[in-house]
Write a structure and sequence with these properties.
Elements lengths: L1 H26 L1 H14 L1 H5 L15 H20 L3 H19 L2 H4 L14 E2 L3 E2 L13 E13 L4 E14 L4 E5 L6 H8 L8 E7 L12 E4 L11 H12 L6 H14 L20 H13 L5 E4 L8 H16 L3 E6 L4 H4 L4 E6 L2 E7 L3 H7 L10 H9 L10 H16 L4 H6 L4 H24 L7 H9 L8 H20 L2 H17 L8 H42 L6
Parallel strand pairs: 5-9, 5-10, 7-8, 8-9
Antiparallel strand pairs: 1-2, 3-4, 3-6, 10-11
This protein binds adenosine-5'-triphosphate (ATP).
């Protein structure tokens, strides 16, 4: 007891001393300029985004605030490491230091970007599920600057007697640069998955309009291997272990120039980067087999798609069904991947406020239309500028989803919408509604949606489109790589056959040697044995009988494996589609 109290006392003392030291340091003009210089030099992310296009309602300076956040984090880590004290001290001192540092160095213009609920700098040091994580370390890849302008998409619904068209996306414009995480948010059915698929080149071009460019070049099939696409449903083999899954992915996807050992090493590296060491020998699991947890499964899916170091990573609802801590861990991982120079786009349903503040950019969709595109941290400012502000303290994501659903409960009603409602009110007065009812009346979701779409079109859309006209800040040779240079297949046709054969065998070993399958065979053998018991074949009739036995055996062993094989096709179809879409297989 005494020990504990004395150590906590010591921690407090150290914490106080640290705060005093920092405050004194802050007061010194010389040190402050040094820190400023250090900030300029130390921000990896700001370097990766240097010269990038600012495409947010906030206009210029898109990198500066993030730059400040990252360097502040680095500075804090340095000081805390020096003190080598406990977690309590590091948290207390980070908080104090974060406040002093921000107050001292951040320009007023950047204060708008400060994240009130954000815990951006608290890189989760330890994964509660899996232990300490390694930082994502990948070789540099071709940076991909993605721009999309006025993207529309429709599906043609064919009935028995009629054919109709359904417009799903209505003129979506935006961009995502290397080093950034762009979140696509919106209510269910607003078109997030469709937009993600369109951006990933996963839908037919015939029903799609508008311009989508990758480093100012149109989509080509060569991009398939540079784009990682993590689908909403986990497409994994349930009976393979985590290590087997990632090793087979490495063997199939990594270039032929690497040896088998190097490919296996890459799989091991990804396992430790994603914090999957503890469960690497556990089966993935599925509907009938208990396996790894949902968060681990999501990380395996991400690992599958980052193993070949893609330049653009698209994820469909990577946090759905996960608790807020695991979801935060996944988004932190996406942030790390982006920091390694990748462009990351993810759809997200209802993030917590901490999670929301981890996104760099945001697209808010409502019924397939743009309601907002810009910095995630400026979304609230934008909506308050058009008259929609939360009246109570609210998670920004919840507020934005309410708006996208046309729900203005606990949200201020813009003057223009009030005017539109006046007409409705006067009609209601005639039918005798009370004052209270009239006062509480809210505009209908359709009216709110129309207003938000119009506001975005009038205030932001044009300037965003102009921003997208600026060429991407890379040289022509690098740009053309998107168009001409294809990542090589991981293995020759023969090797691929071997890898897929062994993978199939490992996946099915439980099935083939299951008790059910063995008892099926043994039971058939016993029945057949009993039927032909003591048939010695001495006369023509018994010989005929034995010919029947041979016929039965031939038919049984001919059809039994064929039927088993036929039923594996539907099971493997999703994986086959996924691997073909990612250009993993030579066809
Ligand atoms: N092939 C299709 N045929 C008919 N309707 C479609 C098709 N694809 C998408 N839709 C419709 O387009 C709309 C947008 O679908 P999408 O899957 O992109 O939404 P979402 O925002 O991702 O939804 P969720 O968050 O629920 O996954 C939905 O109303 C959906 O029914």
């Amino acid at each position: 007891m005494e020990d504990t109290s004395s150590s906590s006392g010591l921690m407090r003392t150290q914490s106080d001393q640290l705060v005093e030291t920092i405050s004194a340091t802050m007061r010194s003009p010389r040190v402050s300029s040094d820190w400023g210089a250090e900030m300029e030099g130390s921000s990896r992310k700001s370097m990766s985004k240097g010269g990038g296009i600012s495409a947010s309602p906030g206009g210029g300076g898109s990198t500066s605030s993030r730059h400040i956040r990252k360097t502040r984090s680095a500075q804090m880590k340095f000081d805390v490491d020096e003190l080598n004290s406990g977690a309590t001290l590091s948290r207390a001192s980070s908080a104090s230091m974060g406040f002093s540092f921000t107050a001292f160095t951040v320009r007023p213009s950047d204060i708008a970007d400060s994240r009130p609920f954000s815990d951006d700098d608290d890189h989760i040091p330890e994964d509660i599920e899996t232990g300490t994580l390694k930082k994502i370390q990948t070789k540099p890849t071709l940076p991909i600057y993605l721009k999309f302008t006025e993207v529309t998409y429709k599906v043609i619904i064919k009935g028995v007697t009629f054919t109709t068209e359904k417009n799903i996306l209505h003129g979506i414009t935006g961009s995502a640069n290397p080093g950034e995480v762009l979140a696509l948010m919106g209510p269910s059915g607003s078109g997030k998955t469709t937009l993600l698929s369109v951006l990933g080149g996963r839908v037919g071009e015939t029903n799609q309009r508008g311009s989508i460019t990758y480093n100012d070049q149109p989509y080509t099939k060569f991009l398939k291997s540079r784009i990682g696409f993590v689908t909403q449903d986990d497409v994994l083999f349930p009976h393979l272990t985590v290590k087997e899954t990632l090793t087979y992915a490495a063997l199939l996807r990594l270039p032929k120039t690497l040896t088998k050992q190097e490919k296996e090493q890459r799989a091991t590296d990804v396992i430790s980067e994603l914090g999957l060491e503890r469960c690497q020998d556990s089966m993935i699991g599925g509907s009938y087999v208990r396996g790894i947890s949902g968060g681990e499964r999501k990380r395996v899916c991400i690992g599958n798609d980052i193993i070949n170091n893609p330049s653009l990573l698209l994820l469909d609802e990577p946090t759905s069904g996960l608790d807020s801590t695991t979801a935060l861990r996944i988004v932190q991982l996406l942030q790390d991947i982006a920091e390694a120079g990748k462009t990351v786009i993810t759809t997200i349903h209802q993030p917590s406020s901490r999670l929301y503040h981890k996104f760099d950019k945001l697209i808010l969709l409502g019924k397939g239309s743009m309601l907002y595109f810009g910095k995630a941290s400026e979304a609230m400012i934008y909506f308050s500028s058009i008259g929609c502000s939360p009246l109570i303290s609210m998670n920004p994501a919840e507020f934005l989803l309410d708006l996208a659903n046309g729900n203005l409960n606990d949200v201020s009603v813009p003057g223009e919408l009030k005017d539109r409602m006046q007409i409705g009110n006067s009609e209601r007065v005639q039918i005798g509604n009370s004052d209270r009812e009239r006062k509480n009346r809210k505009p209908s979701p359709a009216v709110v949606h129309e207003y938000l779409v119009e506001a975005y079109e009038m205030r932001v859309a044009e300037s965003e489109k102009k921003n997208l006209m600026i060429p991407v800040p890379i040289d022509e040779e690098t740009k053309s790589k998107v168009y001409f240079e294809k990542q090589k297949y991981g293995a020759s046709w023969r090797k691929q056959f071997g890898i897929l054969f062994w993978r199939g065998l490992k996946e099915r070993r439980h099935d083939y040697f299951s008790w059910l399958r063995l008892s099926q065979i043994v039971t058939t053998a016993i029945i057949v044995g009993l039927l032909w018991w003591q048939s010695d074949g001495n006369n023509a009739e018994e010989l005929h009988d034995q010919a029947g036995l041979l016929f039965f055996i031939a038919v049984f062993w001919g059809y039994f494996p064929v039927f088993t094989a036929i039923f594996t096709f539907p099971q493997e179809r999703a994986m086959l589609n996924k691997e073909r879409a990612a250009d993993m297989l030579e066809t």
